[in-house]
Specification:
Beta-lactamase; two-stranded antiparallel ribbon; globular
Length: about 280
């Protein structure tokens, strides 16, 4: 057991770093207009794996500021749940507990209030499903994996079923991008089957021109500001480009809508969606 843990910790020492340096970074301030149009602050980074090159807007926020991962943590929660057997596969159903839940805006979360498979819960970002997964994993096992992955500040706090939502756990955009890059290439300390399942449920769009895989996240900072994430990759001509978007606005900002609009606008400006990259 100790030998296995030693291997995990050795592998994790290089897991969440994106190798971002002044020599392979282009600062693109033209992207500021997308954030300004939505009246939000934020950062965006795109990593061209073939060229080993970053395009970044707001470098200091990208590298130096950490935030609650919100529902982007479902990537790691899924990986740990599958690896430990708490999730059998993407078709595993967790029964609805009959508690009627609401979204943060106050409207009833109808898509959550039903029996769901893991794949369904991931795609609609159903918080209750993944809270139950976290409870089944347990605090000690969850902490072991967060420590071995060096995931953000790897702090759980008092509750194993909400630490990724209540600002206990925090992660930088740079670390987020490093994680998804390692996931794509199968370089995280999980089985190939586990990582393949998570990559499968991350797919949002696939056609002849491109394949888009991502996970969104939405929450609030301690100061009440709304916070949004989109992390993932886009493949064109079988070549991956990894991205992370982080935005922040006032409490009543429609983070979910603006996150998508900003991401699609930036990717379009970068020349994606036409199959010509």
């Amino acid at each position: 057991m100790n030998r296995i843990l030693s291997v995990i910790f050795f592998l994790s020492s290089v897991i969440l770093f994106s190798a971002c340096s002044p020599n392979n970074v282009t600062i693109d301030n033209s992207l500021k207009k997308y954030f300004d149009s939505a009246h939000v602050a934020g950062t965006f980074a795109l990593f061209d794996n073939g060229q080993g090159h970053f395009t970044i807007y707001n470098l200091s926020r990208y590298k130096d500021s950490a935030y609650t991962p919100a529902s982007t943590f479902k990537i790691v929660n899924s990986l740990i749940g599958l690896q430990t057997g708490r999730i059998a596969n993407e078709n595993m159903v967790i029964k609805w507990d009959s508690v009627i839940r609401k979204h943060n805006e106050g409207n009833i979360a109808e898509s959550w209030n039903k029996d769901l498979t893991m794949e369904q819960a991931f795609k609609i970002s159903a918080v209750p499903y993944y809270q139950e997964v976290a409870r089944r994993i347990g605090k000690d096992t969850m902490q072991l994996w967060l420590d071995s992955l060096k995931y953000g500040n790897h702090k759980i706090g008092n509750r194993v079923d909400s630490f990724w939502l209540d600002n206990s756990l925090k992660i930088t955009p740079d670390e987020q991008l490093g994680l998804i890059k390692k996931l794509y290439f199968g370089q995280l300390p999980f089985s190939k089957t586990t990582m393949d399942i998570v990559k499968k449920v991350m797919v949002r769009e696939e056609n002849a021109n491109y394949k888009l895989s991502l996970k969104t996240g939405w929450g609030y900072r301690e100061n009440g500001n709304g916070l949004g994430w989109v992390v993932g990759w886009i493949e064109e001509n079988k070549h991956p480009y990894f991205f992370v978007l982080n935005i922040e606005g006032t409490h009543d900002t429609n983070i979910r809508v603006f996150s998508k609009l900003i991401l699609m606008g930036i990717l379009n400006q970068q020349g994606f969606f036409q199959g010509k990259r």
